[in-house]
Amino acid sequence: MAQDGNSGTELAAADSSDHGHGTELAVGTAVVATDAVPNPGFPPHRPRVTDLDPKKEKRAERTVYTLFYLSAAGSIWAIAAYMMFPIEPENLNSVRANNLFIGLGLALALLALGIGAVHWGKALMHDQEGIDMRHPTRGSESTRDRAVEVFAEANEESGFGRRSLIRNSLIGALIAFPLPAVVLFRGLAPEGPEANPVRLLEHTMWKKGDRLARDPSGVPIKAVDVTIGSVFHVIPEELANLGHSEGYLEEKAKAIVLLMRLKPEDLVEDEDKKDWSYDGIVAYSKVCTHVGCPVALYEQQTHHLLCPCHQSQFDVTNHCAVIFGPAARPLPQLPIAVDDEGYLVAQSDFLEPVGPSFWERH
Length: 362
Ligand code: FES
Fold this sequence. Notes:
Elements (H helix, E strand, L loop, with lengths): L7 H12 L29 H4 L1 H31 L7 H33 L16 H18 L5 H13 L2 H10 L8 H6 L9 E3 L16 E6 L11 H8 L1 E5 L19 E5 L11 E3 L4 E3 L6 E3 L5 E4 L11 E3 L5 E3 L16
Antiparallel strand pairs: 1-2, 2-3, 3-4, 5-6, 6-7, 7-8, 9-10
Helix pairs in contact: 3-4, 3-6, 3-7
């Protein structure tokens, strides 16, 4: 029995007929206990000041649309702050100012939008208590018609159609609110002549003759230092020449390598890749081909590399082929050799792109 009502009497009647209380107890063996605490029903309706005083109603309306305009202003301020307080490389103060002012703008936008909506509901929308009983999922035609009526009533009672200033300012605030996100996400995209992300990810800084060095010290590694079963985290020796403003972290993220030494007879190498290793020493990209986590767990006994993010496993004896997990392709191998002084060097860059394989790179 779904009836709106604002009196305790109506509620009590609805409760009684629906639950079998009073004189309508259920038949059979069921024992229906009466409620220990009677339903008190609705408290007497108390009109709000905005119901009684048109001036106060007008003031509440002004407050609501002012808040919505304030919200739009906050969103616009967040965009302006993004441009006025750019992040400068190696300047922590600029990061602080950028985050602070963008954050203030977004906070104002959200807060004003929320407070405006609550104030609108509490002070201006129709103030009527009601009961809405549960129904089967799909209502009858009459219920559906009633739903349309309810929408129309809600429109009428909330004043959404009638109070054009509130409605339009709300629409303006909602349109303005996502705009900072567009600008902020655009800022994540690479800029400049090399802005094509596919190109940027296609190559790393490895090139022929670059020494393999320990991460993070940058000390070059000799082949004799790599004992069977050991594993090294490796960067190009030349990475140390790059400053942070020159893309140190970006280059490191792409070029990072894991170096391991196995017994040469344990390696099962393709004919065309036989000279990519040196006396059982192999080097593979540390960037998981699933979604790019660092593959840093080496099981010395099984020669498996494990990615901790989603448990992809790679077989080091077999060109890091995927043996388990969601990664779709092997870890790219860095062809290596040894120079005149016994240091491990790259023969070239990776011959395929490193990292997640969801990019269509070719
Ligand atoms: S990122 Fe390595 S398994 Fe998902």
